[in-house]
Every structure is written in C-alpha cells, then in structure tokens.
Amino acid sequence: MIELSNLEFHYPGSDFKLAIEQLSIARGQKVAVIGPSGSGKTTLLNLIAGILEPNSGDVKVGDRHIVSLSDKEKRDYRIKDIGFVFQDFRLISYLNGLDNILLPFKINNSIKVNGETEDWIKLMCDEMAIKSKLSKFPNQLSHGEKQRLAICRALVAKPSIILADEPTGNLDPANKTNIMQLLFSYASKNDSTLITVTHDYDMLKGFDTVIDFNDLTSKKA
After folding, report:
1. CA–CA distance, 181 with 169 (Å, rounded to integer)
2. What burial class does residue 111 get, using C-beta atoms within 10 Å of its C-beta: 0-12 exposed, 13-18 middle, 19+ buried?
3. Does the structure show a pLDDT above 50 at 114?
4. Which residues contact 114 (CB under 8 A, 6 or more apart)?
5. Which domains does the chain carry?
6. Bridge-partner residues for 161, per DSSP?
C-alpha cells in the first residue's frame, strides 16, 4: 500500500540528508520505527503524509504518487486517508476539546459528521478517559490529556493510515497501554496501516514489524 523508492530528502541549509532506497508497507500492517533522535524518523512520516516533498524519488500510496498531487489534492489526502498523531499535538488553542477532535470535519467539507461519528467519538473518549474534558481548552489540560485528545482527533475520520509520532511519550504505564490498545484495535478492525515512531521499547511487542531506522537509511553529511 505504501511504497517509497529511491527517495532522497534534505533540509535547506542543513547537512542532514535522508536516503531510502526501498520501503514497502502493506495495508493493515502495524509497523514500529525505532532509531536515534535526529535520524529522520519524523521526516519519514511527514514525507508519507505529503507534508514534506522529497528532493528526488517517489512516495506511492495505493495507486497515487503523492509527489505528483496538487496542494489541494495533498490536503484532501491527509484529511481523508491520514490520521497524524503529532509529537507536539498541534491542538488549536481557541478550540475546546470536542472542537479540536472535530477539526478534520471543520476544514474539509467532503467529510461529514453523522450519528456514527458521534458514537465513535464517545467510544474513543471513554477509552481515553477524557470524556469529562471535552469542554476544556488545551491550556486547561495536562500533557497526557492533550496527547490523548490528539489521538482521538487523528482517528475521528477513520483514516486508512495512522502516522503516530511518539504517541506514548511522557505518559504513565496505564495510559500508554490504553493508547496502544486503541491504536492496535482500530488498525485491526479497519484494516488500517499503523506506522509508529517510538523510543518506548516496551511497546514493541504489539507490532507486526519493527524497522530500525539505521538499517533502512543512509545519512550523509
């Protein structure tokens, strides 16, 4: 489902260079990506999401070549197909918890809230123990509550691909387990692909595949 080939990327003004000769991830696969900080793991997620564009090479998702999409097509692709759990959450400060979860529906008219959506939000918020926090704003939430809210937002439109950047960072063991159980369960029930960047080796046993970034890439100065 996801294929990267002959991919190269570098940030302007930086010595960092990411090179991936070949990476294939099947639909429904649960993949953990591990490796040292600064190696390019988050960059990889951004390339798959079409947030960043490679300097050369191809990113193919299904039958679409992401590099060839227009800006509007990339936005639609991210809204409809990608659930992104950002490491810094990217919650909107002036929206309460519920409106932050519903953000994908507010910025794209091609997807609509219905009764099934409302039931799904209730289920997620129950499992994430944030149902009582939906009227609060991000500055009124703890770090862990913000993280769980961001995960609910990533899953609300039922994406076919989940990109999770350190989704269990700075959480207590119980919440780490709850979050990973929700992500694994969602991916299994919806035949969705889960790609998770993590430093938490205790969480690796639930994944189908673990990719060591050092084995996947060459990084040149």
Report:
1. 15
2. middle
3. yes
4. none
5. 2-219 (3.40.50.300)
6. 82, 193
